[in-house]
Structure formats: structure tokens, C-alpha cells
Amino acid sequence: MSSEAAVATGAPAAGAATVPLLRVQGLAKHFGAFRALDGVSFDVMPGEVLGLVGPNGSGKTTCINVITGLYRPDGGSILYQGRPVGGMAAHRLVHQGINRSFQIPKPFKSLTVRQNVEVARTYGQHAARAGEAEGGVAGDIGELLRFLGLEQHADRMAGELTSAQQKMLDLARALATRPKLLCVDELGAGLNPAELDLVAGRLRELARSGIALLVVEHLMDFVDEVTDRLIVLSAGKNLFAGTLAQAVQDPRVVEVFLGAPDEH
Ligand SMILES: Nc1ncnc2c1ncn2[C@@H]1O[C@H](COP(=O)(O)OP(=O)(O)OP(=O)(O)O)[C@@H](O)[C@H]1O
């Protein structure tokens, strides 16, 4: 990688000892002639919370969709724990420790909250059998529901939950598979300030427990609270890598994404 690319992607300096959990290099995804991802590169370090931000349509969700196996990449590489996983089916990635939550959760509405999480646990049982990440918040379903404020709803049908509660359930389902890398797609949208506070705290707690997070989000206060570092995408390409404090000083980021302070 050139030194310029290393700066743009926030890659660690050559010779740095820490190995990325996920390394995305030159990732491409095309829909017909349209290049939704046009050579995106970044690393996610173990236990890191990396924000993936940018204007509407810049490719953030597509990036998560490719990393988690919903779409096959059209170019570039995805290395997870040093091994290529680009194009691998979603269920295999879940077994490897990569899972995600969705912008619009789709729980099994006629199953209870607990049953929804049990189904997810079964789906991820390969990881459970391997005895990885036992204990912690993802160790026990009751504990997981408590962690996400769902314990009093455990026996309700998922279809009866509010949309905020459905987002928590979606997170619980992803965590039930004991991910090492959790991709979180616009969790903050539609949550009230108290719910946002709770979720931000929980995501930080997950990171402290060793889970790496890739967080797509529009709410910049939430991004500020939750993430260690940001990648800004613009039109399917890397625009910036660094902290939010650095991003607000970067004229390119201000121009295409953040806007001038008086525009807020
Ligand atoms: N399945 C698809 N077929 C065709 N075009 C798609 C598909 N998925 C995404 N796109 C297009 O790719 C571009 C990137 O979409 P994507 O959802 O990744 O953007 P985003 O950065 O997540 O946007 P937002 O912040 O609005 O959610 C958009 O122009 C979108 O219309």
C-alpha cells in the first residue's frame, strides 16, 4: 500500500505489530454500470469501534452488505483474521464470527422475543460449539435480553414491539451468534435520547468486552460518543480516515458531508 493510501485508509504504519481483524482493500460493488463501491479500503482492529459515515448513497450499507455476505464483491479483497472471506455466504461468515444488525429489522414477528434470540443462537451454534467467546454479555440469552433492556418483553411476540425495541432485538439476535466483528447499520435512527444513550453505552461495553464494531450512522453525536475512529465515504470511495475531531477540520469532509457549522 502506498503511504498516501495508508493515510486515506487509516492503515497502521508498516511494521506495526497489531494485526487487523478485518482488512478491506480496494472493495468494489457494481449495480449494472453504477459503481456503489469503487475501491474502498480500511482496517478494523480487534476491539475497535470504527465509524463508517458519509452522505446518503455513498455506499455505507452496501459495504456492510458485501462484508457480511449479502452481496458478492465485484473486486478487491476482504481479509478476516488474515484469511480471504470475500464472497463467502452469510451463514458461513456468521460461523466465522462476522454478523450484523439491519437498518430495518425483520424479526420473526409471530415468535416471542426470547424465541427469536434462540433461533439466532441456533443459527450461530457452530461458534458456540467451538466454545468461543463463552460468557460475557452474549453467553446467556436471559443476560443478553437484560443487557439490551428487553427482559420484561421476553415472552411478547416480536411483532408487538416498538421499532426501537425491534432494533434492540435485532442487536440481541446478532450478539447471540457471538460475533467477533459486529456491523451495526443505522441503529440510532428513530431512537429517543434516552434510548440513544443506552445503546451508545452498550456498544462501548461490547467493545470493551473485545468485540470489534463497524458502525454505520448518520447521527454525529452518537458517532462521537461511540466510535474510536472514522472512515468517511463519498460516492463509493474513501474520502477521509481519522477521528471526528480531525474530520471536522477537513475541508473535503465539511464540503461533501458535514457542511459548514452554520448549516446545522
Ligand atoms: N441492490 C441495489 N441495486 C441497485 N442499486 C443499489 C442497490 N443497493 C444500493 N444501491 C445504490 O448504491 C448506492 C449506495 O447505496 P447505500 O445504501 O450503500 O448508501 P448509503 O451510504 O448506505 O446511504 P444511506 O445513508 O442513504 O443509507 C445508492 O445510490 C443506492 O441507490
UniProtKB/TrEMBL annotation:
UniProt key word Membrane: yes
One Pfam short name: ABC_tran
InterPro entries named in the record: AAA+_ATPase, ABC_AA/LPS_Transport, ABC_transporter-like_ATP-bd
Gene Ontology terms, MF aspect: ATP binding
Residues annotated as domain ABC transporter: 22-260
Keyword Transport in annotation: yes
Key words of the record: ATP-binding, Cell membrane, Membrane, Nucleotide-binding, Transport
Descriptive protein name: ABC transporter ATP-binding protein
Native source species: Candidimonas humi
Taxonomic lineage from the root: Bacteria, Pseudomonadati, Pseudomonadota, Betaproteobacteria, Burkholderiales
